[in-house]
Amino acid sequence: MTSQNQLFETLNPPQRLLMGPGPINAYPRVHQAISQSLIGQYDPVMTGYMNQVQALYRGVFETQNQQTMLIDGTARAGIEAVLVSVLKPGDKVLVPVIGRFGHLLCEIAQRVGAEVRTIDIPWGEVCPPEKVEAEVKAFQPKLLATVQGDTSTTMNQPLEALGEICHRHGVLFYCDATASIAGNELKADAWHLDAVSAGLQKCLGGPSGSAPVTLSDRCAALINQRKHVEAGIRAAHHIQGAEAMIQSNYFDLAMVMDYWGPERLNHHTEATSMLYAARECARIYLEEGAEQVIARHRQAGGAMAAGLQAMGLSLFGDQQHRMNNVVGVSIPGEVDGDTVRLELLNRFGIEIGTSFGPLHGKIWRIGTMGYNARQECVLTTLAALEAMLLKHKARIEPGVAVTAAMEYFG
Ligand SMILES: Cc1ncc(COP(=O)(O)O)c(C=O)c1O
């Protein structure tokens, strides 16, 4: 029970080292950005920031797409906005399911009333392009919906070949890059992606609550065929789309595009503090340089994997296709995974991730993302985990994990 006194205590969350699959500790500069003054949504300074955010995220997504903006909400809001705006009832969508978030795409598409076909891949593997091409030919979907990095399994789905297939067959290509963007290569234009959505709370190093999205011109044109300007703000020059209205108001990307467009046609009230955060995340990423940031994630993830293996633990899934930023590691049979995680949190203030569905109780997921893709975070986590495993009498090789990770860093 919360006591009356607790209600009025000053907010004072504990300092944690967040080494799970996200959220992670935000870059200190992002915290500073969030605490800046609020301004009105039509203040020219604010609309200027909105334009800057669009330009910065074109850099992050590696795209020239005019329609690049933020959806106010967590990463799931970005996914839902794309799917509800692109898909109409009866439209065909093909989803390679490599983990939990593939199932999520199916569920959202089903809610829209789309006809969903899946390619079911065992957890720990990625979908071969041949399977996608065969299903594209057989099913002739309007949209191929994929997850790049599925945190539930730690796998990173290669997208370039899928983009080629979609391009050749005239299929729209969408990807949820929430967990992979900024830690793994993603080239929206070069890989023929028509829509990409993301979140801040993984390798971009921010809090959750803003979902950057980008839409190709053809995808934006298709969505605009369903444009219906809200009655209370409609003017004579507004042309309504010829097709059925998008079923969600909040996630109506035709409306959101108008809000971010030159007319600034009012929709929601842009979440100012989250926009500041998103702007800072992109600025940090592009300042350090995409290649350098991705290499930093590759190195930190590789060092974590090397340390865990040196302890004698086995890694989960096809290591050729592991995301740079999350490692899945089998929980030794001698210990209870949740007990170890909780003690790690209580004694060291370090959080690592549990897992879902068929992997629950079998693997922990350890992330090295954004601000935490650093040597000190990796070494501290390995040292603490080793101590907890020894305390719980796991049969591991003591005293070698940190050294192996240090050697990996060189
Ligand atoms: C691949 C992927 N997609 C979507 C999400 C959902 O993000 P959010 O919780 O910000 O809505 C997550 C979160 O872990 C994720 O890893």
UniProtKB/TrEMBL annotation:
The keyword Cytoplasm does not apply. Signal peptide: none annotated. Its EC number is 2.-.-.-. Coiled coil: none annotated. InterPro entries: Aminotrans_V_dom, PyrdxlP-dep_Trfase, PyrdxlP-dep_Trfase_major, PyrdxlP-dep_Trfase_small, SP_NH2Trfase/AEP_transaminase. Keywords: Aminotransferase, Pyridoxal phosphate, Transferase. The modification N6-(pyridoxal phosphate)lysine is found at residue 202. It comes from the Bacteria. GO terms for molecular function: alanine-glyoxylate transaminase activity; L-serine-pyruvate transaminase activity. The keyword Acetylation does not apply. Substrate binds at residue 365. Its cofactor is pyridoxal 5'-phosphate. Residues 47-353 form the Aminotransferase class V domain. It is an enzyme of class 2 (transferase). Pfam families: Aminotran_5. One of its GO terms (biological process) is glycine biosynthetic process, by transamination of glyoxylate. Belongs to the class-V pyridoxal-phosphate-dependent aminotransferase family. This is Purine catabolism protein PucG.
